[in-house]
Amino acid sequence: AQKVTQAQTEISVVEKEDVTLDCVYETRDTTYYLFWYKQPPSGELVFLIRRNSFDEQNEISGRYSWNFQKSTSSFNFTITASQVVDSAVYFCALSVTSYDKVIFGPGTSLSVIP
Amino acid sequence: DVKVTQSSRYLVKRTGEKVFLECVQDMDHENMFWYRQDPGLGLRLIYFSYDVKMKEKGDIPEGYSVSREKKERFSLILESASTNQTSMYLCASSQRLSGGRANVLTFGAGSRLTVL
């Protein structure tokens, strides 16, 4: 069975602090995709990144970076120098081969305090 | 600009009523999904469809059915609404990649359903 765990339910940081959101996944498939989505207070989920299981290179996009480690089945997301606009719920997700299913974790609610 | 449109943003229904939630995408995507979002539980997959007239059960299909008569439209049906179906319902679509894995999901704005 496939599963995505986000152990941090809620995180609060002060603006300009760095913050890491954890994601641990379970799957027996050897080929899969991992995703991060952001849900701002307005409600509509927005895609942030996709990573396939064969590419363990870390990725950086502006203040965002992602650390994918197959050895620990983790795909963690770091925001550097957080801003109030980063306040949102962040979801990690897994796409496996069976019938195109996309499985989401429970989400981490991030609050960035000015 | 690509879009997934959900017909109703807010609905209030009574227990036992039949409820239709409509979703339309304009991206010619093969896959369409219905998720339910509840606090502390994240997004749970109700049903998905990988082709016209095809449907697959997700993790929580009980009490729901779906219809996909056209590629662009995926409807979620609550045959007899109950209070425990009060929730936010999210529709999404994606391309299908080689090997069957779903590509990036594009989400609609959501439909918040309250069942009294």
Give a verbal description of the structure:
Chain A has 114 residues and is mainly β. Chain A has no helices and 12 strands. Chain A has strands at 3-5, 10-14, 19-21, 24-26, 33-39, 46-52, 59-61, 64-69, 74-79, 88-95, 102-104, 108-113. In chain A, the strands form 3 sheets. In chain A, strands 2, 5, 6, 10, 11 and 12 form a 6-stranded mixed beta sheet that branches. Chain A has a 4-stranded antiparallel beta sheet with strand order 3-9-8-7, with no helix packed on it. The mean pLDDT of chain A is 91. In chain B, strand 6 and strand 7 (56-57) form a beta hairpin. At the A-B interface, strand 5, strand 6, strand 10 and strand 11 of A face strand 5, strand 6, strand 10 and strand 11 of B.
Instruction: Note the gap between the termini of chain B.
Output: 36 Å
Q: What best-fitting shape of chain A do the alpha-carbon axes yield?
A: globular
Stretches with pLDDT under 50, minimum 5 residues of chain B: none
Estimated structural class of chain B: mainly beta
- Measured on Cα atoms, how large is the radius of gyration of chain B? 13 Å
Shape of chain B: globular
* Assembly context of the chains: heterodimer
**Largest β-sheet summary of chain B:** 7 strands, mixed
Number of strands of chain B: 12
Q: Summarize the helix and strand pattern of chain B as letters.
A: EEEEEEEEEEEE
Poorly predicted ranges of chain A (pLDDT <50, ≥5 residues)? none
Biggest sheet character of chain A: 6 strands, mixed
- Beta-strand content bin of chain B: over 45%
Structural class assignment of chain A: mainly beta
Percentage of residues in DSSP E strands of chain A: over 45%
Helix content of chain B: under 10%
Mean pLDDT of chain A: 91
Rg of chain A computed from alpha carbons, rounded to a whole number of angstroms: 14 Å
The N- and C-terminal alpha carbons of chain A lie at a distance of 41 Å
Write down the secondary-structure element order of chain A.
Answer: EEEEEEEEEEEE
